[in-house]
Amino acid sequence: MKNRNHDIETIINSLDQILNGNYKIHIDIDPQSELRETAEKINKLSNDLLSSFSAIKKISQGDFSLEIRSTRGIAAGLKTVQANIRHLIWQCKKATDGDLSKRILPLGEMSEMFNSMVTSLNNARDEIADLNLNLENKVKERTAQLKKTYLDVIHALAFAIDEKDPYTHDHSKNVTRYAIAISREMGLSEGEIDIIERASLLHDLGKIGTPDYILTKPGKLSPQEWEKIKLHPHKGAKILEPLEFLNAEAKLVLQHHERFDGKGYPKGIKGKSISLGARIIAIADSFDAMIRERSYRKALTNQETITKLKKGAGMQFDPKVVDALLKLLQKEII
Protein backbone atom coordinates (compact mmCIF):
# COMPACT_ATOMS: atom_id res chain seq x y z
CA MET A 1 0.00 0.00 0.00
CA LYS A 2 2.84 2.37 0.92
CA ASN A 3 4.59 1.68 -2.43
CA ARG A 4 1.34 2.22 -4.36
CA ASN A 5 0.69 5.55 -2.66
CA HIS A 6 4.30 6.59 -3.41
CA ASP A 7 3.83 5.64 -7.10
CA ILE A 8 0.62 7.68 -7.31
CA GLU A 9 2.30 10.68 -5.69
CA THR A 10 5.26 10.39 -8.08
CA ILE A 11 2.98 10.26 -11.13
CA ILE A 12 0.87 13.22 -9.98
CA ASN A 13 4.00 15.32 -9.31
CA SER A 14 5.32 14.42 -12.77
CA LEU A 15 2.04 15.40 -14.43
CA ASP A 16 2.04 18.70 -12.55
CA GLN A 17 5.55 19.40 -13.86
CA ILE A 18 4.51 18.64 -17.45
CA LEU A 19 1.42 20.84 -17.18
CA ASN A 20 3.66 23.64 -15.87
CA GLY A 21 5.97 23.36 -18.88
CA ASN A 22 8.71 21.13 -17.49
CA TYR A 23 8.95 18.25 -19.97
CA LYS A 24 12.32 16.92 -18.82
CA ILE A 25 11.01 14.22 -16.49
CA HIS A 26 11.18 10.46 -16.25
CA ILE A 27 9.14 8.28 -13.91
CA ASP A 28 10.83 5.25 -12.34
CA ILE A 29 8.46 2.90 -10.52
CA ASP A 30 8.37 -0.79 -9.67
CA PRO A 31 7.98 -2.87 -12.88
CA GLN A 32 5.36 -4.94 -11.03
CA SER A 33 3.29 -1.88 -10.11
CA GLU A 34 -0.25 -1.70 -11.48
CA LEU A 35 0.58 1.89 -12.50
CA ARG A 36 3.50 0.84 -14.72
CA GLU A 37 1.59 1.35 -18.00
CA THR A 38 0.45 4.80 -16.90
CA ALA A 39 4.03 5.76 -16.01
CA GLU A 40 5.34 4.52 -19.37
CA LYS A 41 2.65 6.46 -21.21
CA ILE A 42 3.59 9.66 -19.39
CA ASN A 43 7.30 9.05 -20.08
CA LYS A 44 6.54 8.73 -23.81
CA LEU A 45 4.49 11.91 -23.79
CA SER A 46 7.24 13.71 -21.93
CA ASN A 47 9.91 12.60 -24.40
CA ASP A 48 7.68 13.57 -27.32
CA LEU A 49 6.97 17.01 -25.89
CA LEU A 50 10.61 17.59 -24.94
CA SER A 51 11.97 16.76 -28.39
CA SER A 52 9.18 18.70 -30.10
CA PHE A 53 9.65 21.90 -28.13
CA SER A 54 13.42 21.70 -28.50
CA ALA A 55 12.91 21.49 -32.25
CA ILE A 56 10.35 24.34 -32.23
CA LYS A 57 12.82 26.56 -30.36
CA LYS A 58 15.57 25.75 -32.86
CA ILE A 59 13.30 26.32 -35.86
CA SER A 60 12.03 29.65 -34.45
CA GLN A 61 15.69 30.75 -34.30
CA GLY A 62 16.27 29.71 -37.91
CA ASP A 63 18.20 26.55 -37.07
CA PHE A 64 16.84 23.51 -38.91
CA SER A 65 19.76 21.21 -38.19
CA LEU A 66 18.26 19.39 -35.17
CA GLU A 67 17.57 15.77 -36.00
CA ILE A 68 14.06 14.69 -34.91
CA ARG A 69 14.05 10.91 -34.53
CA SER A 70 10.63 10.27 -33.05
CA THR A 71 7.92 9.05 -35.45
CA ARG A 72 5.03 9.55 -32.99
CA GLY A 73 2.43 12.28 -32.53
CA ILE A 74 3.69 15.86 -32.27
CA ALA A 75 7.29 14.98 -33.06
CA ALA A 76 6.25 13.18 -36.24
CA GLY A 77 4.27 16.19 -37.44
CA LEU A 78 7.10 18.54 -36.54
CA LYS A 79 9.58 16.31 -38.36
CA THR A 80 7.51 16.66 -41.54
CA VAL A 81 7.28 20.44 -41.09
CA GLN A 82 11.03 20.67 -40.50
CA ALA A 83 11.75 18.60 -43.62
CA ASN A 84 9.50 20.80 -45.72
CA ILE A 85 11.11 23.99 -44.41
CA ARG A 86 14.50 22.55 -45.29
CA HIS A 87 13.15 21.67 -48.75
CA LEU A 88 11.77 25.19 -49.17
CA ILE A 89 15.11 26.77 -48.24
CA TRP A 90 16.91 24.41 -50.62
CA GLN A 91 14.51 25.30 -53.44
CA CYS A 92 14.99 29.02 -52.77
CA LYS A 93 18.74 28.59 -53.05
CA LYS A 94 18.31 26.63 -56.28
CA ALA A 95 16.07 29.40 -57.63
CA THR A 96 18.67 32.08 -56.85
CA ASP A 97 21.11 29.97 -58.90
CA GLY A 98 18.67 30.00 -61.80
CA ASP A 99 17.26 26.47 -61.36
CA LEU A 100 13.43 26.67 -61.40
CA SER A 101 12.80 23.06 -62.39
CA LYS A 102 11.48 21.95 -59.01
CA ARG A 103 8.05 22.71 -57.54
CA ILE A 104 8.16 24.80 -54.36
CA LEU A 105 5.90 23.61 -51.57
CA PRO A 106 2.87 25.97 -51.25
CA LEU A 107 2.73 27.95 -47.98
CA GLY A 108 -0.86 26.74 -47.48
CA GLU A 109 0.39 23.21 -47.05
CA MET A 110 2.99 24.46 -44.58
CA SER A 111 0.24 26.16 -42.54
CA GLU A 112 -1.83 22.99 -42.49
CA MET A 113 1.14 21.04 -41.18
CA PHE A 114 1.79 23.58 -38.45
CA ASN A 115 -1.91 23.54 -37.51
CA SER A 116 -1.85 19.75 -37.39
CA MET A 117 1.17 19.87 -35.11
CA VAL A 118 -0.55 22.38 -32.76
CA THR A 119 -3.65 20.17 -32.66
CA SER A 120 -1.49 17.20 -31.70
CA LEU A 121 0.12 19.29 -28.99
CA ASN A 122 -3.26 20.33 -27.57
CA ASN A 123 -4.46 16.72 -27.64
CA ALA A 124 -1.38 15.65 -25.72
CA ARG A 125 -1.98 18.35 -23.10
CA ASP A 126 -5.62 17.22 -22.80
CA GLU A 127 -4.49 13.62 -22.39
CA ILE A 128 -2.07 14.63 -19.64
CA ALA A 129 -4.79 16.66 -17.89
CA ASP A 130 -7.17 13.67 -18.06
CA LEU A 131 -4.53 11.35 -16.60
CA ASN A 132 -3.88 13.85 -13.82
CA LEU A 133 -7.59 14.20 -13.02
CA ASN A 134 -8.16 10.44 -12.97
CA LEU A 135 -5.22 9.87 -10.64
CA GLU A 136 -6.33 12.70 -8.34
CA ASN A 137 -9.82 11.19 -8.16
CA LYS A 138 -8.36 7.77 -7.34
CA VAL A 139 -6.19 9.28 -4.61
CA LYS A 140 -9.17 11.16 -3.12
CA GLU A 141 -11.31 8.03 -3.21
CA ARG A 142 -8.62 5.87 -1.62
CA THR A 143 -7.85 8.52 1.01
CA ALA A 144 -11.53 8.72 1.95
CA GLN A 145 -11.65 4.92 2.30
CA LEU A 146 -8.56 4.90 4.53
CA LYS A 147 -9.97 7.69 6.71
CA LYS A 148 -13.23 5.82 7.13
CA THR A 149 -11.36 2.64 8.07
CA TYR A 150 -9.29 4.49 10.68
CA LEU A 151 -12.39 6.14 12.14
CA ASP A 152 -14.30 2.84 12.25
CA VAL A 153 -11.48 1.19 14.18
CA ILE A 154 -11.14 4.09 16.62
CA HIS A 155 -14.90 4.29 17.14
CA ALA A 156 -14.99 0.58 17.89
CA LEU A 157 -12.30 1.08 20.54
CA ALA A 158 -14.18 4.03 22.07
CA PHE A 159 -17.47 2.13 22.22
CA ALA A 160 -15.71 -0.89 23.72
CA ILE A 161 -14.63 1.32 26.62
CA ASP A 162 -18.25 2.44 27.20
CA GLU A 163 -19.42 -1.16 27.20
CA LYS A 164 -17.06 -2.15 30.03
CA ASP A 165 -19.24 -0.36 32.57
CA PRO A 166 -23.06 -0.73 32.58
CA TYR A 167 -23.27 2.83 33.94
CA THR A 168 -21.46 4.27 30.90
CA HIS A 169 -23.31 2.26 28.23
CA ASP A 170 -23.76 4.46 25.12
CA HIS A 171 -22.10 7.36 26.96
CA SER A 172 -20.07 8.53 23.93
CA LYS A 173 -23.12 8.38 21.66
CA ASN A 174 -25.19 10.38 24.14
CA VAL A 175 -22.47 13.00 24.61
CA THR A 176 -22.25 13.32 20.83
CA ARG A 177 -26.00 13.82 20.51
CA TYR A 178 -26.04 16.54 23.19
CA ALA A 179 -22.94 18.27 21.78
CA ILE A 180 -24.45 18.41 18.28
CA ALA A 181 -27.71 19.86 19.62
CA ILE A 182 -25.85 22.52 21.65
CA SER A 183 -23.65 23.40 18.66
CA ARG A 184 -26.69 23.92 16.44
CA GLU A 185 -28.41 25.99 19.13
CA MET A 186 -25.31 28.22 19.22
CA GLY A 187 -25.34 28.63 15.43
CA LEU A 188 -22.08 26.87 14.60
CA SER A 189 -21.30 25.96 11.00
CA GLU A 190 -21.79 22.42 9.71
CA GLY A 191 -18.01 22.07 9.35
CA GLU A 192 -17.49 22.98 13.03
CA ILE A 193 -20.30 20.63 14.06
CA ASP A 194 -18.72 17.75 12.11
CA ILE A 195 -15.47 18.20 14.04
CA ILE A 196 -17.32 18.36 17.37
CA GLU A 197 -19.30 15.25 16.45
CA ARG A 198 -16.17 13.20 15.76
CA ALA A 199 -14.37 14.54 18.84
CA SER A 200 -17.39 13.74 21.03
CA LEU A 201 -17.44 10.14 19.84
CA LEU A 202 -13.72 9.87 20.63
CA HIS A 203 -13.51 12.01 23.77
CA ASP A 204 -12.89 9.05 26.13
CA LEU A 205 -10.60 7.15 23.77
CA GLY A 206 -7.66 7.65 26.15
CA LYS A 207 -9.36 5.47 28.76
CA ILE A 208 -8.23 2.50 26.71
CA GLY A 209 -5.00 2.74 28.72
CA THR A 210 -6.78 2.93 32.08
CA PRO A 211 -6.97 -0.29 34.15
CA ASP A 212 -10.39 -1.98 34.07
CA TYR A 213 -10.62 -2.12 37.86
CA ILE A 214 -10.63 1.70 37.90
CA LEU A 215 -13.14 2.08 35.04
CA THR A 216 -15.56 -0.41 36.57
CA LYS A 217 -15.04 0.42 40.25
CA PRO A 218 -18.50 0.56 41.91
CA GLY A 219 -17.60 3.27 44.43
CA LYS A 220 -15.73 6.57 44.38
CA LEU A 221 -12.13 6.57 43.19
CA SER A 222 -9.14 7.01 45.47
CA PRO A 223 -6.85 10.03 44.90
CA GLN A 224 -4.31 7.75 43.18
CA GLU A 225 -6.96 6.21 40.93
CA TRP A 226 -8.33 9.65 40.11
CA GLU A 227 -4.86 10.78 38.97
CA LYS A 228 -4.76 7.86 36.55
CA ILE A 229 -8.20 8.76 35.19
CA LYS A 230 -7.05 12.34 34.63
CA LEU A 231 -4.45 11.10 32.13
CA HIS A 232 -7.08 9.99 29.60
CA PRO A 233 -7.50 13.30 27.67
CA HIS A 234 -3.76 13.42 26.99
CA LYS A 235 -3.64 9.73 26.07
CA GLY A 236 -6.60 10.10 23.71
CA ALA A 237 -4.99 13.06 21.94
CA LYS A 238 -1.73 11.11 21.57
CA ILE A 239 -3.58 8.21 19.95
CA LEU A 240 -5.11 10.59 17.41
CA GLU A 241 -1.98 12.69 16.90
CA PRO A 242 -0.48 10.60 14.02
CA LEU A 243 -3.73 11.00 12.03
CA GLU A 244 -3.34 14.46 10.49
CA PHE A 245 -6.94 14.57 9.29
CA LEU A 246 -8.05 14.39 12.96
CA ASN A 247 -5.79 17.18 14.28
CA ALA A 248 -8.73 19.47 15.12
CA GLU A 249 -10.56 16.61 16.86
CA ALA A 250 -7.44 15.68 18.85
CA LYS A 251 -7.28 19.21 20.25
CA LEU A 252 -10.88 18.98 21.52
CA VAL A 253 -10.22 15.54 23.02
CA LEU A 254 -7.22 16.98 24.87
CA GLN A 255 -9.19 19.93 26.26
CA HIS A 256 -12.60 18.43 27.10
CA HIS A 257 -11.87 18.29 30.86
CA GLU A 258 -10.57 21.85 31.11
CA ARG A 259 -12.71 24.18 33.22
CA PHE A 260 -13.83 27.71 32.36
CA ASP A 261 -12.22 28.96 35.61
CA GLY A 262 -8.88 27.29 34.81
CA LYS A 263 -9.12 24.56 37.46
CA GLY A 264 -9.49 21.68 35.02
CA TYR A 265 -6.98 19.29 33.49
CA PRO A 266 -4.61 18.39 31.90
CA LYS A 267 -3.19 21.92 31.33
CA GLY A 268 -5.36 24.15 33.51
CA ILE A 269 -6.18 26.61 30.72
CA LYS A 270 -9.28 28.77 31.14
CA GLY A 271 -11.98 30.84 29.45
CA LYS A 272 -11.75 31.30 25.70
CA SER A 273 -8.28 29.78 25.71
CA ILE A 274 -10.24 26.53 25.68
CA SER A 275 -11.57 25.70 22.22
CA LEU A 276 -15.32 26.30 21.91
CA GLY A 277 -15.80 22.70 20.75
CA ALA A 278 -14.09 21.44 23.91
CA ARG A 279 -16.27 23.71 26.08
CA ILE A 280 -19.34 22.23 24.41
CA ILE A 281 -18.15 18.63 24.83
CA ALA A 282 -17.30 19.34 28.49
CA ILE A 283 -20.86 20.32 29.36
CA ALA A 284 -22.36 17.52 27.23
CA ASP A 285 -20.10 15.04 29.04
CA SER A 286 -21.06 16.37 32.49
CA PHE A 287 -24.76 16.58 31.60
CA ASP A 288 -24.81 12.90 30.60
CA ALA A 289 -23.11 12.01 33.90
CA MET A 290 -25.67 14.06 35.87
CA ILE A 291 -28.75 12.38 34.43
CA ARG A 292 -27.32 8.84 34.68
CA GLU A 293 -27.51 6.62 37.72
CA ARG A 294 -24.23 5.65 39.31
CA SER A 295 -23.42 2.84 41.71
CA TYR A 296 -22.87 5.42 44.46
CA ARG A 297 -25.79 7.79 43.66
CA LYS A 298 -29.08 8.09 41.82
CA ALA A 299 -29.54 10.08 38.64
CA LEU A 300 -30.27 13.77 39.25
CA THR A 301 -33.79 15.03 38.64
CA ASN A 302 -34.45 17.57 35.90
CA GLN A 303 -34.56 20.44 38.42
CA GLU A 304 -31.43 19.25 40.21
CA THR A 305 -29.62 19.09 36.87
CA ILE A 306 -30.70 22.63 35.92
CA THR A 307 -29.59 23.94 39.32
CA LYS A 308 -26.19 22.28 39.00
CA LEU A 309 -25.70 23.63 35.46
CA LYS A 310 -26.51 27.17 36.54
CA LYS A 311 -24.18 26.86 39.53
CA GLY A 312 -21.36 25.69 37.26
CA ALA A 313 -21.76 28.60 34.78
CA GLY A 314 -18.62 30.72 34.81
CA MET A 315 -16.81 28.16 36.96
CA GLN A 316 -16.81 24.70 35.42
CA PHE A 317 -18.72 25.68 32.29
CA ASP A 318 -18.81 28.47 29.71
CA PRO A 319 -21.93 30.55 30.61
CA LYS A 320 -22.97 30.86 26.96
CA VAL A 321 -22.84 27.09 26.50
CA VAL A 322 -24.87 26.65 29.68
CA ASP A 323 -27.51 29.05 28.30
CA ALA A 324 -27.69 27.06 25.07
CA LEU A 325 -28.18 23.78 26.94
CA LEU A 326 -30.84 25.29 29.23
CA LYS A 327 -32.75 26.55 26.18
CA LEU A 328 -32.70 23.05 24.70
CA LEU A 329 -34.01 21.61 27.98
CA GLN A 330 -36.74 24.23 28.06
CA LYS A 331 -37.72 23.37 24.48
CA GLU A 332 -37.52 19.67 25.45
CA ILE A 333 -35.21 19.04 22.50
CA ILE A 334 -32.89 17.11 24.84
Polypeptide structure, described:
The protein has 334 residues and is mainly alpha-helical. Helices cover 66% and strands 0% of the residues. The chain is built from 13 helices and no strands.
Question: Key features?
Answer:
single chain, 334 residues, mainly alpha, Hypothetical protein af1432, 2 domains, elongated
Q: Summed up, what is this model?
A:
Helix content is 66%, strand content 0%. It is mainly α and 334 residues long.
Number of domain modules = 2
What is the approximate shape? elongated
Q: Main beta sheet, described?
A: none
Tell me the structural class: mainly alpha
Our estimate of the beta-strand percent is under 5%
Helix content: 55-70%
Overall strand count? 0
Roughly how many Å is the radius of gyration? 34 Å
**Can you give the mean pLDDT?**
77
Number of continuous helical runs: 13
CATH superfamily of the largest domain: Hypothetical protein af1432
Classify the fold: give the CATH topology of the largest domain: Hypothetical protein af1432
Q: Cα distance, first to last residue?
A: 45 Å
Q: Please identify the oligomeric state.
A: single chain
Low-confidence stretches: none
CATH class of the largest domain: Mainly Alpha
Series of H and E elements: HHHHHHHHHHHHH
Which architecture of the largest domain per CATH?
Answer: Orthogonal Bundle
